[in-house]
Amino acid sequence: MSRPRVEFLWWEQCPSWERALEELRAAMSDAGADPGAIELRRVGSERDAERERFPGSPTIRIDGEDPDPPGAGQPTGLLCRVYRRDDGRASPLPDPDKVRAALGRALVS
Known about the structure:
Blueprint: E1 6-10, H1 17-30, E2 39-42, H2 46-52, E3 59-62, E4 83-84, E5 90-91, H3 96-108
Helix pairs in contact: 1-3
């Protein structure tokens, strides 16, 4: 089983980053991956946001890919990210099914 690179990017003013990190750790544990291997990166400035191509907090990347990618034209910067569920609802958290599926793919590749 390969070890995927899992990055968690967050902005401290976003109220949902802690819950998103808890959910990511649980998903990694459930998938048999080490939650302690998550690369935590606080995005603290607009310069950091630009460098990271940061579409808002929280953002997860698994092997460089966003499991719940932002739509076209999504701004980057120090902001709270809004995710769109398949049924059209807005959420401050990424879709857990998409995160788990991406982890599963990364663990078998």
